[in-house]
Give the backbone structure.
Amino acid sequence: MTIDETTHMCFACSPINPIGLKLVFADKGDTCVTRFVPGPQHQGWTGRVHGGIVTTLLDEAMAQFLYRRDETAVTAELTVRFRIPAPVGSELLVEARQTGARGRLLTLEAKACLKDGTVVAVAQGKFLRVPPDALG
Ligand SMILES: CCCCCCCCCC(=O)SCCNC(=O)CCNC(=O)[C@H](O)C(C)(C)COP(=O)(O)OP(=O)(O)OC[C@H]1O[C@@H](n2cnc3c(N)ncnc32)[C@H](O)[C@@H]1OP(=O)(O)O
């Protein structure tokens, strides 16, 4: 897959999307990790990060796990359990790992934690392999 990593507009990870989260990922052991400090513009209920933003962090970490391993796959199903409210202004540490593969179906899990290790949310994702040219 050929994606120009300096010019693409992914809401989660583009370095140039003006309203994006600008996430930067790294591999750590058998996981893919990122950090994000949500601001007031990311909240839902006052002081709490919007669940859609937390979901984006989890989904993107799993997608990046695959992208960084040359898998061309899209999210086909995503389940998120929000354990505690994510406070605005507190750094979230996000990590994703693969849990299985069967044919085109890849299964992953991800979690978002506070700096003290408290788990904020966990996700299970199913990704389906697609042809590389399907993702431009
Ligand atoms: C540097 C840039 C990096 C950017 C990273 C960006 C990451 C963003 C991550 C995302 O958010 S991706 C965007 C959100 N997801 C999508 O837009 C996907 C939309 N859905 C689709 O495109 C299609 O539905 C999909 C490709 C997932 C499947 O369509 P297909 O026509 O290829 O497959 P089909 O529906 O025929 O299913 C194929 C097989 O998979 C099975 N399947 C499909 N969905 C499933 C599911 N959820 N769970 C289990 N099995 C599933 C299905 O039953 C079937 O099994 P069999 O082969 O045994 O018959």
Notes: The mean pLDDT is 96.
